[in-house]
Amino acid sequence: MTSEPQVRFLDRTTPPHIFTLIMIAGVSALSMNVFLPSLPNMTEYFATDYRLMQLSVAIYLGVNAVLQIIVGPISDRYGRRPVVLAGFLIFVLASIGCVYAPTAETFLAFRMIQAFVVVGIVLSRAIVRDMVPQDQAASMIGYVTMGMAVVPMIGPAVGGVLDEIFGWQANFWMLVLLGAITMWLVWSDLGETAAHRSSSFSAQFRQYPELLMARRFWGYCLAAAFGSGAFFAYLGGAPYIGTEVFGLDPAQLGFYFGAPAVGYFLGNFISGRYSIRFGINRMILTGTIIVSCGMACALVVFYGGFGSVQSFFGFMTFMGLGNGLLVPNANAGMLSVRPHLAGSASGLGGAIMIGGGAALSALAGALLTPGTGAFPLLWIMFITSVMSFLSILYVVRRERTLALA
């Protein structure tokens, strides 16, 4: 594709409009967190344990990670458009299944199937990389995820209100409606962007060693994985802290829960505006420093005895801001190491990122018990953010070494 592709809205013979990319990524992101304020009520509804219902986050992320490995190569082979359409159709049907699930176990099964909506996150990035070169891709991904951040920012607040008025099932009816609207939009606007396709899956997977042996790919991948790990740990632990430590009701939890998205929105705006000027490595490095410093300050405040609901969620905006700089630029770096494997790189990188997030989400849920307060979650988030900093530092130093060689 050219650096300035011809785009006409609602014309499926041209590349998609940025609004379409925001929608497919936004609905994918919304499905992760919109119902989280309802977890206590869902636990009561299914007459089960909170830890079992909390698995609706961890197993969703786990299946999400496995699917990302598959989605990338399939889209490289058959194209982006049919894979996105199929993924959203499955998502809509699974969301209806969640509404009518008679038991917690059945609900969790449909929740796993809902993870097929991951096609939106994986392929929105790959489509951008199909359309434009590396630095411009980082900028465009920044704008896509900036718009995407608005949806999960208001999602938990809306979900908490819907829960109080109509019950927890209303959250999933909303996902059914949004999924159906997005399917129509994809059908009407998303023209195929994968110009060079593999002749077979065997040829596709024979190219994987080329990607896996690239140190820059791993550096960008681990920077994104550890940076996002702080966010996924937050997804798994914040509902417990909000309800059990600070005594928030679903509507209040939904309001506070969106705090990181405020920072994420700002970070993505900065990425969209300045990634081309400053380069992706500097943006990633700055993002990891912001997250690490924010979590370190949160630990100092809580150990000093000044922890409160406002300070806990307030410091989470630093995590969002740092990830807003880190994630779009690290994704652009991953996809640009081997441009002809953009779909596979997006899927594999996303699988590592989401798989690690699933583990951290489950770990946060396991470590948060009565009496621990917010400390286990804050320590997990601080350690992962430092690891993200070390990962991008490796990339920067390696590039300097190669430049001097």
Provide keyphrases for this structure:
17 helices; 405 residues; Growth Hormone, Chain: A; mainly alpha
Fold-level CATH name? Growth Hormone, Chain: A
Distance between the termini: 33 Å
- Estimated share of beta-strand residues: under 5%
Shape: globular
Question: Would you kindly provide a brief summary of this structure?
Answer:
With 405 residues, the chain is mainly alpha-helical. Helices cover 81% and strands 0% of the residues.
Account of the 3D structure:
The chain is mainly α. The protein has helices spanning 18-33, 39-45, 50-78, 80-100, 104-114, 119-131, 134-166, 169-189, 201-206, 208-212, 215-245, 250-257, 259-278, 280-303, 309-337, 342-367, 375-404. It is globular. The protein starts with 17 loop residues before the first helix and ends with a helix.
Question: Topology of this structure?
Answer:
Blueprint: H1 18-33, H2 39-45, H3 50-78, H4 80-100, H5 104-114, H6 119-131, H7 134-166, H8 169-189, H9 201-206, H10 208-212, H11 215-245, H12 250-257, H13 259-278, H14 280-303, H15 309-337, H16 342-367, H17 375-404
Helix pairs in contact: 1-6, 1-7, 1-8, 2-3, 3-4, 3-5, 3-6, 3-16, 4-5, 4-6, 4-8, 6-7, 6-16, 7-12, 7-13, 7-15, 11-12, 11-15, 11-16, 11-17, 13-14, 13-15, 14-15, 14-17, 15-16
